[in-house]
Amino acid sequence: MTPASIMDYRELARRRIPKVLFDYVDGGSYAEATLARNIADFEDLALRQRVLKDVSQIQLGTELFGQKLSMPVVLSPIGMAGMYARRGEAQAAKAARDAGIAMCLSSLAICDAAEVAKAAGAPPWYQLYVIKDRGFTENLLHRLAELGCPVLALTVDLPMPGMRYRDVRSGLFGGGGMATPFKRAWDGITHPDWLIDVMLHGGPHTFGNIAPAIPEARGVMEFWPWVTKNFDPTLTWADVAWIRQHWKGPLVIKGILDPEDAREAVKAGADGIVVSNHGGRQLDGVLSGVRALPPIADAVGDDLTVIMDGGVRSGLDVVKALALGAKACFVGRAWAYAVAARGGPGVAHVLQILRQEMTMAMALTGCTDVKDAGRQLLAG
Length: 380
Ligand SMILES: Cc1cc2nc3c(=O)[nH]c(=O)nc-3n(C[C@H](O)[C@H](O)[C@H](O)COP(=O)(O)O)c2cc1C
What we know:
Strand content: 5-15%
CATH class: Alpha Beta
CATH superfamily: Aldolase class I
Bound molecules: flavin mononucleotide
CATH architecture: Alpha-Beta Barrel
Mean pLDDT: 96
Radius of gyration: 20 Å
Number of domains: 1
Shape: globular
Number of strands: 10
Structural class: alpha/beta
Low-confidence stretches: none
């Protein structure tokens, strides 16, 4: 199949990587109602078609935290991408850099920040999960600053993992039973391209950024039990001040879904927020990102940079999010499917698709510059 859309990449990913990994990428928590809403609520929004305007020059470029981006898109932090393709995060970061956008590297990445910086030719943004060992986090923040990571995104919607039924069934949540190793082996053998690319040539398979603090983090396929043991559920707004002490660069709080919390983020001195329900992977039944966005943008849009994520499957969705007050979108599964299907070239192609789709949506809504995108782009 010649992939034309992000959902085509989903299908290619499904074929190429083992089921246990595809389910981890594709799935959400509980009944996956919020995961479905993230997509359905974008579909429900109608763009307002306008015609006979000069749309020969469409301006997608924007600036986030002093960094120029060729379009208002950032690759979301995605755990374990180095298990979907050989050194997956490094490949994706290179594709992002070549496309003139940024990547936010997950705490649960296989490649560490230094490897990604080297591959891409520029340090990534870094997504932080705070673990109980505060000394480690302090050191990590200093190392990231030394490396030149431009932005820190503190993820706050995972004080404990949401139950993901697909991962329970596959044994990824632990306790998979005696047959699990055999099932895993079969899952691998029946996906030979992946086996050669990742298992033969893609090592080391550890969580590069945090393995020094958590020895169990070497076992990538049994990670939920140690996540539960090591992530710090006592984290409060007071700890954001502690992070601020050790991180002088721009700080973004990821996982905000309520205007009250958005106001707290302003008070805590954050430079930005990501309106996010973690891609429908945490508390099922909460609002979609795109429905949560407008009241949050109204409440704090003048005080800090509002980014959103969840359900972005095309450039049209990005334009809808901009219309509702986002300055940019994080995209998660869009790049995860692409890297799983075709590595870095897949990510490059998905970014090209997003750019073309955005350009088209801007042209047919008669908006020639992303800075002018507003609610006038939506019908009804
Ligand atoms: C496979 C997968 C792994 C993820 N890992 C992380 C992570 O390590 N840290 C984090 O802050 N968010 C993580 N997320 C959430 C994404 O950063 C983002 O919020 C979400 O994917 C956006 O929804 P979308 O996939 O519909 O674009 C992950 C999402 C997926 C799908």
